[in-house]
Description:
Layout: H1 2-10, H2 14-42, H3 47-55, H4 61-86, H5 94-111, H6 117-143, H7 147-167, H8 201-218, H9 220-230, H10 232-237, H11 242-269, H12 280-290, H13 298-319, H14 323-330
Helix pairs in contact: 2-3, 2-14, 3-13, 4-8, 4-11, 4-12, 4-13, 5-6, 5-7, 5-11, 5-12, 6-7, 6-11, 8-9, 12-13, 13-14
Amino acid sequence: MKKAFSKIFCTIPRSQKKFPYTKALASLALGFLAAGILVFYFSSYSFAAVIDFFLSPFSSVFFFGSMLASMSLLLVGSLGSSVALLSGNYNLGGEGQVYLGGLITALILSKLDIFFAPLLAIILVIIASALLSFIPIILKLYRGASELLTSFLLSAALIPLIDWAIAIPLRNKEQNLLATSPILARFEMTKILPPSSLSIVFFLSILLVFIAWRILYRTKEGELFRISGKAEEFSLYAGFKTKRYNIIAMSISGALHGLVGYIAVVSIHHTCHSGFYLGLGWNALSVALIAKSYPLLLIPASFILAYLFSASDYAVLFYSMPFNASFLIQG
Length: 331
């Protein structure tokens, strides 16, 4: 089988093999060029601003560590989006799932001073967030509703409720920030590159990506899962467990987005403040689409996006660029 595949692959012209990589590198170069032009324009034509923009993520321990911390969130979230995409589904409720995961984490770790509180929080976060993506896929399989629409609407309905809960009944009245009580200090992730928020989560997220790649691309069940996502009708006629794959994939997708909320609270924010989820769900989906849902490509894709976020924040902070300009650069 491998020999046959090798023969087929060898018949492809060399230029055609190189084309996808050339195209990707060209797109990346054009993206950075466009970002440089935008920084040059918004910084009143300052070449120093352009140079600092590209070098800033490596200019200090804080910016470098913060970039890698953001990358770890994108890795876990994009893996969740990729699992859904590989199954032939879209999970557009990532932001609500992240928000709910963060809220549950903050509530448990600020109240329960017991050694297994983090494990309890993780279990509840996984269950609650998985449920948010489980409902849309069930509606799709048994009622014909689009999971793309229902996952988005469910998230859009949940976010204002969490905003209200944080602003009124769950708000920490001892501070001006719209946030819950901070988690207990013993449950905060240890920083490995202070003063940045980088923690061991960065390495665990990379390990998680490799585990997912191993399961999806090096096991028989993973191969059947991917075939089921690409050719649903063929899979049904072949007797594959298509419904089961869909349900498992969407549930895992929701659970991983919920874990992003957990990680953000225990390693970065140490509380659940209003709006901390903004961009996490959509950026994770962007990384998954850039990487074409291939787990190992999520690592460079998430690094590039985290790099742009860090560089944009630096430019806004030190060169008085409009805040909205950073969103334009990241786009």
